[in-house]
Amino acid sequence: xHVLDHEPQSWxxxxxxxxxxxxxxxxxxxxxxxxxxxxxxxxxxxxxxxxRDYLSWLAQDIHNGAPILSASLSPYKTRKATKExxxxxxxxxxxxxxxxxxxxxxxx
Length: 108
Prior knowledge:
Blueprint: E1 2-7, E2 11-16, E3 19-28, E4 31-38, H1 41-50, H2 52-65, H3 83-106
Antiparallel strand pairs: 1-2, 2-3, 3-4
Helix pairs in contact: 1-2
Organism: Ralstonia mojiangensis
Protein name: Immunity protein 63 domain-containing protein
């Protein structure tokens, strides 16, 4: 898995084995969390058609549905990435951040 793109404080887009994953940053007052889903074929097509704007909309839609709440009716609730996928994303994000820091230090 690796980071394809991101919008600061909003979302990260990951790719693994041809699949795309969106990790949305959700913040409800003092409580913040990330919620990662694998994009459906239709969502991938909308991303290809509309680009980053679609991902920003999708991340906001995930946030608005508060999918981690037990009473939530969010359509994303049942699409939460597996623990293994989340761990792979975390590893990929750490490598991506380390590379960005190295590039900044070297002035690349």
